[in-house]
Amino acid sequence: MKVSSVPKLLAFSCLITLRLQGYALAELPKAAPATITSIAPTQQEAGRNIQHVTLADPRLGKIGFAMSLPATRTDRKLPVVFVLGALGSGQHSVGLIPNPGAAAIVGYDWPQLPRRLGLHEIVSMRENALAIPGRMSAVSRWTLAQPWADPSRVTLIGFSLGAIAAPAAEQMMQSHGTDVRWTVLADGGAPISAVVAGDQQIQPQWLRSFAALVAESLFRPMDPALHVSHLTGRFLLISSADDTTIPHAASERLEELAPQPKQTIQLPGGHVGTSGAKLELLNAAIAATRRWLTSEGAI
Fold first, then answer.
1. For residues 210 and 40, what is the distance between their CA atoms, to the nearest angstrom?
2. Shortest CA distance to 104 belongs to which of 60, 55, 157?
């Protein structure tokens, strides 16, 4: 991530001023009862039925997600795995989970990032980010109300940026009655300021401290450090030995804050991704996740 233009720095400075004047929300926006607006025609891929669903929430707007269900089902209810990937569509996220077996995989649609980064776009990006927990709560309530869903076997997985958003999302989901029994956080960190301050992808280096201040100012209400210790269930935390995006101190802090019972795994290589060598690292993290969930009886 490279941010060097003066207009962008001025936009960030304006947002800090807005926060000091009371612009920032005191808490995360909560979902109201959502109504379904559309279900796309079913696509069949490798023995799975994949559908895209759009909900409408009077407070949080449109909420999109993809569902992947086994094409052949019995009367037995399906365990549900919610996936927060690192940006991208819900369909892309569910496609990252190979051979999910007799489980329903639900992937959240991340809002598209703006092509330019002015003040208006930053405000919009912040609003969309803070809406993620409420939107995930709406998705989970709708999904678990379906006749095929087993509300007693619910998992939430977060990869990379998704691992940073997942604790706030899970706490919101739990506050609305969703019992998340298994949580996987892969290549995440806490607090947000430490994650950004140690991100070697931000160049030049002197910009990291400023970017950390901005990130803390904008996204503090969903900082994983404020949420993860309040969660319940069982936890798997995955880190990467040579991660240059999430500093080791932030990764270790997230592991420390996660409640027991928990298991930690450090995989070789760098930060996970969806292309090239990073995809191989992601596949290794997904394989470790699958082994753990299988051993736990989650899927």
1. 43
2. 157
For 291, the token pair is 């082994």
Beta bridge pairs of residue 105 = 68, 81
237: left (phi over 0), alpha (psi -120 to 50) or beta: beta
**Nearest Cα to Cα of residue 284 among 263, 298, 267:** 267
C-alpha radius of gyration, the chain, whole number: 19
Tell the residue number behind the tokens 């300021």, with chain if given: 193
Contact between 258 and 249 under an 8 Å Cβ cutoff? The reply is no
Q: Where are the domains of the chain?
A: 6-21+34-296
Which H helix or E strand runs over 154? strand 149-159
Q: Give the architecture (CATH level 2) of 6-21+34-296.
A: 3-Layer(aba) Sandwich (3.40)
Instruction: Identify the band that residue 26 occupies on the pLDDT scale cut at 50, 70 and 90.
Output: very low
Q: In whole angstroms, what is the distance from residue 165 CA to residue 147 CA?
A: 28
Query: Does the pLDDT value for residue 78 go beyond 90?
Result: yes
